[in-house]
Write a structure and sequence with these properties.
Elements: H1 4-15, E1 17-20, E2 27-30, E3 36-38, E4 45-47, H2 58-94, H3 96-122, E5 148-150, E6 155-157, E7 161-164, E8 169-172, E9 176-178, E10 183-185, H4 190-218, H5 235-254, H6 258-289, H7 294-300, H8 311-317, H9 322-332, H10 335-339
Antiparallel strand pairs: 1-2, 3-4, 5-6, 7-8, 9-10
Helix pairs in contact: 2-3, 2-4, 2-6, 3-4, 4-6
Length: about 350
């Protein structure tokens, strides 16, 4: 019975695991083997389960992204050129001043949308800060707090950084990887991505209104007898009017000119695109309002602490100063407003 404590001591020593912190290089003796541990000196988190650095689908993702970018650029070019070709003769036939205003608005929206798309697609999404690591003399106390090591890039990864296997690099404040811009949405281009969505939605609304206005002027007239049913209140008469109107539209659509067909396509394409972009913009703004990105929102579903929901997150994201946000908040919460 006297040998039992010694046997227990020997078993404990055998289970000890000696490892090295990647951040400061200190050799640590853990009480038991742990796949993930945090250094008590520098605060770096080390994972023993190393991931493979090879990714055989990397080039396929890059080719896919380039194809999406080419398709989106071609679509924007067609919307601009097709709208100019189909709508300009109709707009200028109405009035010269109307045509000049339409030309100015078209140029402004086209340049703004394409420029913001270029900034979001071809600008670096954001790289993590370069820091010294690997040596005890250069790494101070808690200098690498909650830093992890990226086995793909072979360098430290800050707490708000994620590795994108499509881009092949670590992205700071990564929101998501968007194949349509062929780039990640991160700290450096997130604002440009939101501005691109806003500009694209405004442009699509303008295209839908202009194409509708131009199509009305070149659309073949409907049968005059169908206008008689407008004054009827009987359900049978209303149904008959709707039926004859649809038939008249379909029959006249077959005889439309190429310009009319392009206007019809521009209308349906612009409406469908602006609906999809509006949903995406609303989702992005809701995450920003919560002080999160899409990836941090997904991680918060797993039990991470929830960020504070406040309009200050929106002001901070768009670069508004604290004085401006405080002034707007005071105006909104003014006594005169509440007394009305």
């Amino acid at each position: 019975m006297a040998d039992l404590p010694n046997q227990h001591f020997v078993t404990t020593v055998v289970e000890d695991h000696e490892t090295t912190c990647w951040g400061c290089g200190l050799r640590l003796l853990l009480p038991s083997y742990s796949p993930v541990f945090k250094c008590g000196w520098c605060g770096a988190i080390t994972s023993q389960n190393k991931k493979k650095c090879e990714d055989k689908y990397f080039w396929w993702r890059r080719v896919r992204d380039r194809c999406f970018v080419c398709v989106l650029l071609s679509f924007m070019l067609f919307m601009i050129c097709g709208g100019v070709w189909a709508a300009y003769p109709v707009v200028f036939s109405i009035g010269k001043l109307c045509g000049i205003i339409h030309s100015i608005v078209t140029v402004i929206l086209s340049i703004t949308t394409v420029s913001l798309f270029g900034l979001a697609a071809f600008r670096c999404a954001g790289t993590p800060p370069s820091i010294e690591w690997g040596g005890y003399p250069t790494v101070g106390k808690s200098f690498l707090e909650n830093y992890t090591f990226c086995h793909y890039c072979s360098k430290p990864k800050s707490p708000r950084t994620h590795h994108c296997r499509s881009c092949g690099m670590c992205i700071l404040d990564m929101d998501h990887h968007c194949p349509f811009i062929g780039n990640c949405v991160g700290a450096a281009n997130h604002r440009h991505f939101i501005a691109f969505l806003i500009s694209a939605i405004i442009s699509m609304v303008y295209v839908s209104v202009t194409s509708t206005y131009a199509a009305i002027h070149i659309w073949p007239p409907l049968p005059t007898r169908s206008t008689v049913y407008l004054s009827g209140i009987n359900n049978y008469i209303a149904w008959r009017f709707l039926k004859e109107t649809i038939i008249a539209i379909l029959s006249s659509g077959v005889s439309l000119s190429p310009r009319g067909l392009v206007l019809v396509y521009l209308f349906f394409a612009s409406v469908s695109v602006q609906i999809g972009l509006s949903v995406l913009l609303w989702q992005q703004l809701s995450y920003i309002y919560q002080g999160k990105t899409y990836l941090s929102y997904l991680s918060s579903q797993g039990g991470d602490p929830v960020s504070e929901k406040d309009c200050k997150n929106l002001f901070r994201f768009f670069g508004c100063s604290y004085s401006v946000s405080r002034f707007l908040r005071n105006v909104w919460n003014s006594p005169k407003r509440h007394n009305k």
